[in-house]
Amino acid sequence: MTTALIQKDHQAADLDVARIREDFPILGRQIHGKPLVYLDNAATTQKPNAVIDRITRYYTHENSNVHRGVHHLSEVATAAYEGARGTVKRFINAGSEKEIVFVRGTTEGINLVASSFGRTNVKAGDEILISAIEHHSNIVPWQMLCQERGATLRIIPVNDAGELLMDQVRAMLNERTRLLAVGHASNALGTINPIREIIELAHANGTTVLIDGAQGVPHLEVDVQDLDCDFYAFSSHKVYGPTGIGVLYGKEALLEAMPPYQGGGDMILSVSFDKTTYNALPYKFEAGTPDIAGVVGLAAALDYVSALGLPSIAAHEHDLLLYATEQLEEIDGLRIIGTARHKASVISFVLEGVHPHDIGTILDQEGIAVRTGHHCAQPVMMRFNVPATGRASFGLYNTRDEVDALVRGLERVIEVFR
Q: Residue 192, SS3?
């Protein structure tokens, strides 16, 4: 695997983006006869050859079920699967591989906590605290739990920049707050939340904390032990890995006390018609045949990102964010939604007199892929009084030239609709 780095005087390395782009075969495509400019990374990232080749190698040379066979292929597949668990543990600095549960993605990780931890610990009259800028995946499971348990869902407000009002966090935490669930970064606005401070405040109140890390892990170094979060969920496909696989990190003591999320094979030690004895962590939460190829593909993606270095990735993406913000602010009638002081590489915007879906359609004709709509964050749209936004989100392979292409594309939009 190439790391595509240029070292500079022992300082943090810069990314050789031109070289990196060669690792992503889809970036060589043309769309409607134009070079692909892929700016929809907050929805899903493209996959490097290292990931594609690893999945292909699994299916062509290693395919077998895990944990269930003594034959060679099963042993090889099991070693790869469990080796990937170790890769994830190191990537987020978990204390034990027992704390790494493979799930379908961030959404299932949150639902697992809502179902297992929530039903065990949340009672009538309790409160769950989330923010006003959450993805639907970090809203709906808690609404369902509160409705079932007779609990109350309370919402931390944000200012006009899209930043959480921290004085309200302090005021809203009380003896009834059983759980606080908040995103590491907003997929709709790019806001990076002060999760360390939030976790400290919650723990001082005796409140358990879940972090939705879907937009955190691709852009920021995450150390779950240093953060001291109780749960942290993220998705493979946001961090250059395959779809349909993700991770729930949970503190071992919490996971140990939680009942299984689903029943089936591999999450048991013994089964009779009288009684079932559950398996040890983390297998208690991994019922059925897992997405083995997805897991080894995720490990390959994390290895790829680690080789490039998250500090270098973050610096590159921040440069793109600043450059794109400056360029877009020069466009007449364009307004950026979400101007937090600390942002991931996401820019949501509206263009006066043009519906976001029309923006997306014209940009697509120019080969430019952006997201338009409510981004699975309808309460955010309501908070900022817009029906939808256009969203450009950057990854490690994007360039300033692609930002310039976006600006030219938006100028074309203006020509068409004005």
A: strand
Structural domain of 110: 52-306
Please give the full DSSP string across 12-75, using - where no structure is assigned. EEEE-HHHHHTT-GGGG-EETTEE-EE-BTTT-----HHHHHHHHHIIIII---SSS--SHHHH
Q: Per residue in 144-170, is it b (16+ CB within 10 Å) or e — as a string?
A: ebbeebebebbbbebeeebbbeeebbe
**Contact between residue 210 and residue 179 where contact means Cβ atoms under 8 Å apart:** yes
Same domain, yes or no, for 44 and 60? no
C-alpha–C-alpha distance, residues 219 and 240, integer Å:
11
Break the chain down into helix, strand, coil percent, rounded to 5: 45, 20, 35
- Hey, CA dihedral for 219, 223, 228, 230, is it positive or negative? positive
Active-site positions read 376
Same-domain status, 301 and 327: no
Closest CA to 305 of 59, 92, 9: 92
Q: Which of 306, 322, 340 is the last residue of a domain?
A: 306
CB atoms within 10 A of CB 411: 11
pLDDT for 330-379, tens place per residue? 999 999 999 999 999 999 999 999 999 999 999 999 999 999 988 888 99
- Check if the beta carbon of residue 187 is closer than 8 Å to that of residue 214: yes
CA dihedral 199, 200, 206, 210 (to 10 degrees): 10
Cα–Cα distance between 40 and 396 in angstroms, integer? Answer: 12
Beta bridge partners, 267, equal: none
Phi and psi angles of residue 276, each rounded to the nearest 5 degrees, phi first:
-120, 135
Axis crossing angle, helix 292-308 with helix 310-329, rounded to the nearest 10: 80
Full DSSP string of 274-329: S-EEEPPTTGGG--SS--HHHHHHHHHHHHHHHHH-HHHHHHHHHHHHHHHHHHHH
Query: Which pLDDT belongs to residue 186?
Result: 97
Mean pLDDT by 10 residues, the chain (418 residues): 34 78 97 97 98 98 90 95 98 98 98 97 98 96 98 98 97 98 97 98 98 97 98 98 98 97 86 86 93 98 97 97 98 96 97 95 97 89 93 98 98 91
Give the residue from 74, 40, 2 showing the smallest Cα distance to 398: 40
Pick the closest to residue 366 from 402, 330, 339 (CA basis). 402
Q: What is the CATH classification number for the domain harbouring 327?
A: 3.90.1150.10
